[in-house]
Amino acid sequence: MVDNGQPSPWWSATRHADRKPFLMARSAITRAVRTWFDEQGFTEVETGILQVSPGNETHLHAPRTEIIGHDGTRATRYLRTSPEFAAKKLLAAGEAKIFEFARVFRDRERGDLHLPEFTMLEWYRAGASYDAVMADTVVVIAHAAQATGIGQFSFRGRTADPFAEPELLTVATAFGRFAGIDLLATISNGEGDRAALAAVARPRVRITDDDTWSDIFSKVLVEHVEPQLGQERLTVLFEYPAPEAALARAKAADPRVAERFEVYACGVELANGFGELTDAAEQRRRFAADMDEKERRYGERYPLDEDFLAAVAAMPPSSGVALGFDRLVMLASGALRVDQVVWTPPAGET
């Protein structure tokens, strides 16, 4: 304790010593992961943080700033929520296998699993299916565990063996198994039928009049599905419904679903990957719809990055994945919260 009776700041010798084992684990994991990417022939890149658009997903919020030119002109910029836009411009430029330990920023996020500033490990393979980055993700997670020597991940009473063969589970199967919902029956022509999903989900989640199909989907996912994932081993949850495709392409054999996957351990989402959409017109349509919804909900919208949309049309078929590196370190080091595994916690916190 300091003299005024308040808790010691995070940089006090005692509190830093408590966190030191987790920070050493972070360094070991970083080295191991970098070595693996190097062995696979990836190039490490470092892309810009200040962006014209921080991303165009409805529920992601970015800090906003202003840059002043040498002539005094002012321009709005955003701190990125992901390095995805810049990375895809590099794919369009001819890079084939890239990765980045990216600092990213998100407003409205703080908790045991969330920080307003954090590290996202993101990588892309040109000319590869999303099965390839699924496999990458499982290997990267195992390398993290191997780097610390941990035998199993644990979080809030749940455990998972990072070295075991992962469970492969479609979203539709998961909704049927854990919530008794035939999810695909509520999708047609790539759109969700709000009334149909509300009818089958109402006994399981609270639904309000202004909930969209996606809102109801998210409530069922969070309350009934996610807690069951990553139990005893990793779970790869794949074939997300088309209304939740984000930046993923539709599955050719079944347009009701998209080439999107997430990886879970102990109920914790670790990674989100795509078979990347290369149809710029479709990407523009999705972004515009998401920004309309953001404006309706939050009274704000972000501009579209026209340079990015041009890159989408120029980039080759690719796959990519974003992994929450702080969360991975938390599980592989035995920490209880992500703020224990970052060298400097969020500014302004003790």
From TrEMBL:
- Residue ranges constituting the Aminoacyl-transfer RNA synthetases class-II family profile domain according to the UniProt record: 26-345
Q: Keyword GTP-binding: yes or no?
A: no
| Entry-linked PROSITE patterns | AA_TRNA_LIGASE_II (PS50862)
In alphabetical order, the GO MF annotations are: ATP binding; lysine-tRNA ligase activity; tRNA binding
Mention any one GO cellular component term assigned to this protein in its UniProt record.
Answer: cytosol
Gene3D superfamilies the record matches: Bira Bifunctional Protein, Domain 2 (3.30.930.10)
Going by the UniProt record, its keywords in alphabetical order are:
ATP-binding, Ligase, Nucleotide-binding
The lineage's top-level taxon is Bacteria
What InterPro entries does its record include? Aa-tRNA-synt_II (IPR004364), aa-tRNA-synth_II (IPR006195), aa-tRNA-synth_II/BPL/LPL (IPR045864), EpmA (IPR004525), Lys-tRNA-synth_II_C (IPR018149)
User: Which GO biological process annotations does it have?
Assistant: lysyl-tRNA aminoacylation
Name it. Answer: EF-P lysine aminoacylase GenX
**Gene name linked to the record:** genX
